[in-house]
Amino acid sequence: MVLNPVISKLANKLVVLASASPRRQDILRNAGLKFEVVPSWFKETLDKSLFKEPHEYAVETAKQKALEVARRMLLKHLKTPDIVIGADTIVTVDSMILEKPVDKNDAYRMLSSLSGKEHSVYTGVAIVLCHDNENDEVDYQLIDFYEETKVKFADLSESMLWEYINSGEPMDKAGGYGIQALGGMLVEYVHGDFLNVVGFPLNHFCKQLDLIYNRSTSSLDEKSLSVSLSENGTESNSLSSSAKHNLPNSSSQTHHNQNTLSASPLNKVKRTGSDREAGGSSQVLVNSSSEHKATCKTTALPQMTNRGQLTVHADSGPKKEDLQRMMELMDGFKASKALFTASKMCVFDLLQSRPGLEAEQIAQEIKASLKGTQCLLEACVSLGLLRSKEQTSHKPMYENTDLATRFLLSDAPFSLHGYIQHCNSTVWPLFSHLESAVQEGTNQHDKAFGKKSKDMFQDTVYYDREVKLRFMKAMHSIAKVTGKAVATAFDLSSFKTVCDIGGCTGAMAYEFTEAHPGLSVTVFDLPAVVDMSEHFTPQHREHRVSFVAGDFFKDDLPKADLYILARILHDWPDEKVDILLKRISDACRPGCAVLIAETMLDGLRPHSTLQSLNMLAQAEGKERTQRQYVDMMSTHGFGDTRFVQTGNFLDAFISIKL
Ligand SMILES: Cc1cn([C@@H]2O[C@H](COP(=O)(O)OP(=O)(O)OP(=O)(O)O)[C@@H](O)[C@H]2O)c(=O)[nH]c1=O
């Protein structure tokens, strides 16, 4: 049922929500809107001091989120959405802008600053309308607005604050609270639109749609202003101004803006560097038609033809940024192999214990040629893994960068050493047969290692102690790096017993028990794995983790309230995923849940798409989209699904047995 007739205007359009926020998705889905979710990669790092008012910051961030997705869809997906919606929610108190807390202490800082006070919640919304123009290009119109809601918190005691923080709820929410859930208990009153606090001002949005689609169609048909994003003519991007609508008088809490990123001829755009990054940033001096002027980052939208081709001017040669991007892509495998080699030869461990060694000394220690070592060290410096310092002797000495110290030492808490060794010894040979993998649609263990993979893990990994240990170390390192983000993605306070299916060394399980004092976790994995799990038991941790050996396709699953499937489903084809989910569903009572941690294919981020190729070459599965997981889960009686893009390697997704 569609209550609001404007929502139905979008029924046959490709509507894209540029947001990973599950609350925004719920609000719009509940309103009857059909849309695709393409989370924005825009990093929320605009300089707040450049904005006179906090809502200007929220609106600008919303615009950048939406524009980044519009641009990416044209470039990568080669499809033109009709409308892209971006939003950004902030909380303001005592002239501070509060976004999502980075950790528990940050959440404490935020919540204690809100205690006993009234604060404002602003959600900035940007609507990007995409139109094909008569020159076979895409024009954009940008409409933005914001909504303010005032919220007053009760006085919060220390114990209440910490209990709330430890529930995990604050972590992905602006201001560190969720008014729609436990956070509602902290609230004395709300003045204004409640959904605006939750993350999306639905009422104001519908009013805007009404203006766009019902009242001002003629003004939208006005010829759009286009602006060249480069003054030297090397690139002509089309960014049209939005048409002028006659909007009703705003209430004190409801505000709209048009053309804040107007394409007025006064816009000055200077390209600065490559547009390869998510933001594809160009410096834009925004000459706004509304209250503020600000220098901010925006995305240069490419001019596309309807066939998805970039328009290239006849007289312009290849652009420097494009060539650089191509070079980076072609060199990608060399960079990976340089990293794998330096890691395998223990260069980073060596330089950690003896920083400042010269190439000759390093060559001796790693038992390698001087020439080869010099080349490898220089490559590592250029890749940001090592730093070199000139000495008076002109012989450089080397030390680890912070990146190497954090991730490349074999004993660092977030060491990726184990995973890198697996990439080097297993993934690399498999990828050298990628062409066959693509042609045949199957893994390449046979060609790469002479191993038939009838019983996949047994035949390709667990047949040999050394290979098994390497694989377990790889899984262990990834689980340690991703575990906390997955464990704290959702409020798990209603669960007591967890079963981590295929939980390998227990690294993820330990993160769950650490983050949730009330949980105990059973790791369920093959006997060959459980046999060796004690090698990975962490010291100095309270252990509420136990191990049960079994095959999750055959044996009884341990009873639990919550089942974790972290990097499991991507190993298997749909038929096998179906068997496993049916077995889990049979073991679940209503109210039990499944937490899936995978990299979701939505937004076609390179990490996810390449990981999908990896699954093709290495296993029997693939990565999947949120929608595919939602559909699979609902087939097995699960619903009320929430999704969190953790910003880590894995996204998380929880579904409740109905
Ligand atoms: C105050 C409040 C906020 N939120 C959530 O806080 C996030 C804000 O962050 P954002 O940067 O605007 O969005 P995001 O989650 O990072 O998603 P994206 O749009 O992809 O940037 C959004 O989720 C909102 O629902 C609640 O769920 N309840 C509340 O009471």
Task: Describe the fold and architecture.
By secondary structure, the chain is of the alpha/beta class. It has three domains: 3-212, Maf protein (Alpha-Beta Complex), CATH 3.90.950.10; 329-412, Winged helix-like DNA-binding domain superfamily/Winged helix DNA-binding domain (Arc Repressor Mutant, subunit A); 465-657, Vaccinia Virus protein VP39 (Rossmann fold). It contains 23 helices and 21 strands. The strands form four sheets. Strands 1, 2, 3, 4, 5, 6, 7 and 8 form an eight-stranded mixed β-sheet that branches. Strands 17-16-15-18-19-21-20 form a seven-stranded mixed β-sheet, sandwiched between helices. The longest helix has 25 residues, at 320-344. The radius of gyration is 27 Å and the shape is globular. It starts with a helix and ends with a strand. 5-Methyluridine triphosphate binds next to helix 2, strand 3 and helix 6.
Ligands (ions, cofactors included): 5-Methyluridine triphosphate
How does the major sheet shape up? 8 strands, mixed
Radius of gyration: 27 Å
Strand content: 15-25%
Number-wise, the strands total 21
Structural class: alpha/beta
